[in-house]
Amino acid sequence: MFLNQNLIMLLIPLLSLPYFPTPNTYCLGFLMVIKILHNLALVCLARTPHFNRWIIVEANTYEKYWPFYQKRGGNYFPKDHLKKAVAEIEEMCNILKMEGVTVRRPDPIDWSVKYKTPDFESTGLYGAMPRDILIVVGNEIIEAPMAWRARFFEYRAYRSIIKDYFHRGAKWTTAPKPTMADELYDQDYPIRSVEDRHKLAAQGKFVTTEFEPCFDAADFIRAGRDIFAQRSQVTNYLGIEWMRRHLAPDYKVHIISFKDPNPMHIDATFNIIGPGLVLSNPDRPCHQIDLFKKAGWTIVTPPIPVIPDDHPLWMSSKWLSMNVLMLDEKRVMVDANEVPIQKMFEKLGISTIKVNIRNANSLGGGFHCWTCDVRRRGTLQSYFD
Q1: Which of 76, 143, 160, 219 has its CA 20 to 30 A from that of 244?
Q2: Please, what is the average pLDDT of the chain?
Q3: Could you read off the pLDDT of 17-70 as tens digits, one per residue?
Q4: How far is the C-alpha of 51 from the C-alpha of 189, rounded, in Å?
Q5: Is omega for the bond preceding 213 within 30 degrees of 0, making it cis?
Q6: Known catalytic residues?
Q7: DSSP output for 118-179
Q8: Backbone φ, ψ for residue 131 (5° rounding)
Q9: Which CATH superfamily hosts domain 7-376?
C-alpha cells in the first residue's frame, strides 16, 4: 500500500549474546517505539523417523552452505557474527526512530526448546524476520502459517504486540495452521542441478506440495488494492488461494512468477517502491511484466550488488541489495555499502538513508525482511484496472 509519509513498523533486532536476538519490526502509526529483545537464533532442523530433514534446507539454500547447516544444525549461529549483526540492527532502529518511525519488538523466546506435534518434533529458528510471518492488509493483521517446521511456533514472539493492536481495534486473523506432515514436502525433490529446478518451477512444482495450504507472508507484496504473490518453495497454490478468498472482494490477489529455480520470498526479486514504480531483478525476470507495463508502471532494473563473494549469506543471495525499505515515496533505507543502488534511487528523486546491515544480511534478510509496516498514512487506491 502506498500511504503517504510515516509508517509504523515492527522491528525486531537482535541483542545480547550468546543468544541470537531476533530483529523484528512492527510499525504502527507515526513513531517507532523500541523494546530490546533477546530471542535465541538456532540453526535448526526438524526430525521425524522417516523424513529427509535436509530436503527443506537444500531446497532453500545454496549448495556451498550445506556443510554449514550439516555442521551447525541445532546449534547457534556464529557468536562473533551475531554480535556484529546485533550492533547493526540496533543502529538501524535508532535511525528509524530519528526518521519518525515507531519501532516495536516482539517478546523474547527461547528457540532451543524442543517441541513435538503428532507429525514431527523440532526446535525453533528465530524471530528475526517479521515480514516472513506477518502481513498487514488495511486494518487487518494476518499471521502466515509458514512452511518450515523450525518456524511452526514463530508467531508466539509477536502475540503480545498483535493482541495490543487487536485491543485498539485492528482485525486479527491467523491463517489455517498446516500440520506440516511429511506429505507437505516432496522428499524426492531434485536438488542436483539448476536445470532440473528450472524445469520443475516452470511446471509449478517445488519442495512443498499441495497437501494443505502453506505460505510465508514474504511471498506477497502489496500495491494498494492489488496484492501480488508467487508460488515458491514455502508458499503453495492452496495458500495463495486461501489469501485470495479471504481478501476478496476488497483486494485482488494476482499470481506472478519469475525465472527463478529457487524462489523463496518475493522482495529480493520484485520490490514495489512507490505508486507505479517497481524494482525488478534482472537475474530473475518476471514472466508477467507486461501486466505492469500495460498499467503504465515504470520498471526499474537495480544495479548488480557489490557485496563481496567471501561474505557469508547463509540464507539468501546478494540481491538483498534491492530488499530496501521505503519509509515513504521520497525516502528509502538502503545499505551503506551499496553505492550503485544509492545512485539509482537518487536519480529517481528518492532520498537515501544509508545504514550498514551487512552482517545482519547473513541471517537471511535485508531492510524489508527485518521490518513489517503496520500502519501508513494516505489513501487506499487501485493501481490496476
Answers
A1: 160
A2: 85
A3: 223 222 222 222 222 222 223 344 455 444 444 445 555 666 676 677 677 777
A4: 13
A5: no
A6: 216, 265, 369
A7: SS-EE----S--HHHHEEEETTEEEE---S-GGGTTGGGGGHHHHHHHHHTT-EEEEPPPP-
A8: -65, -25
A9: L-arginine/glycine Amidinotransferase; Chain A (3.75.10.10)
